[in-house]
């Protein structure tokens, strides 16, 4: 299973790389990036839970 980084996170990281550290925009983009990463990890965690529940249900049915 390969981890795929979403395009929106990559785009924010590329923009962040061009900005000067400790500038106002740098701080703004780090907050935006943190929010996107948080939602992405939560989405992945929910998918994993759903997959685990489906696996348990299929084992019960057999």
Written description of the protein model:
The structure is a single chain. The chain has helices at residues 7-18, 24-61. The protein is mostly helical. It has one domain. Helix 1 (7-18) packs antiparallel against helix 2. The chain starts with 6 loop residues before the first helix and ends with a helix. The model has no long low-confidence stretch (mean pLDDT 92).
Total helical elements: 2
Domain count: the total is 1
Note the gap between the termini.
26 Å
Task: Kindly report the average pLDDT value.
Answer: 92
Low-confidence stretches: none
As a percent range, the share of strand residues is under 5%
Give the SSE string. HH
Overall form: rod-shaped
Structural class of the helices, strands and pairings?
mainly alpha
State the assembly state of the protein chains: single chain
Number of strands: 0
Taking the sheet with the most strands, its summary is: none
Helix fraction bin: over 70%
Instruction: Supply Rg.
Output: 18 Å
